[in-house]
Amino acid sequence: MKSNFNIQLSLDSKTKNNLYQEALKVRSHAYAPYSGYHVGASVLWSNGHITTGVNVENASYGATVCAERNAIFSGIAQTPDLKIKAICVVTDQANPWPPCGLCRQVIAEFALSDCLIILGNTQLLAQEIAFKDLFPMAFEPKHLKA
To answer: Which end of the chain is flanked by fewer CB atoms within 10 Å, N or C?
Structure first.
């Protein structure tokens, strides 16, 4: 596996590689008959547990669920009240894509303040982004408190 990290954040290379391998492994399970765009995601939780997810399309294309949200929802179902430490998203595209707007909002509600987003494709880990830089003015649960 090649690596081309743009910034250095708080995860060691072994953890980053593990997240990448998990996302890469599940990516092949994606159900994308309409777009052909296969995505796998892995989420590292504050307790060290990793959950994974894939994108799932259906005929009502707008109801498609992204890999990131599937991985997050899986973690919430298994162990509520945890925070996301990092997310790795692996696509089959030459230029890996960051999470969509819907995913960014879900991440904002469940992430630690220093959450790391790791992007890659089937060949390499391409980029790291601090979530606060990806979504600087996120609507977070603290905004709901009176």
So the answer is: C
